[in-house]
Request: fold
Amino acid sequence: MAEAQIPHRVDAVKFVEQIQKLSGEIDSSELTRLNQSVERCLAPINCVLSFERDEERHRLLVGECSTRVAMICQRCLDVVEVEVSSRFELGLVFNDDQARQLPRRLEPVELGENGQLDLWAAIEDEVLLSLPAFPAHPESECQLQQPEPEDSNSNEQQPNPFDVLAQLKQK
Reply:
């Protein structure tokens, strides 16, 4: 079953009043900031979203999203596939005063004119915040070539770098 496309912009105030629920996907190749932050996007962003009010009557966007991206492993510098998922509760506000009134558990998202919300940008922000700071393969899978330890039992004497100073001191 193919997922429906999540709309780019929505009337968030109307969606909250109707307690609207959305389920679908966003073509990750359309999200510029995400594509600049990873090697490539491997899958669309799957979303389950709910517009609602909390006990204190704040407008909320509650949801979860997931995708798969390719990033550079910070251990071996090869490409690693990373599963990215996020659960979020966003407070929908019209201005900074309303944002300051939100409880700390809610991240404010400012609505545009007439209560319009750029839904793709809000979801892209959540995916970006969920990207690992230091992506890496599991240690057992990492292709990092460890240098062989030098044999410490070697009978060869290493030249002392300070011998040159000793010779200059004798002159």
In short: The first strand starts at residue 9 and ends at 11. Residues 9-143 form one domain. The two ends are 87 Å apart (CA to CA).
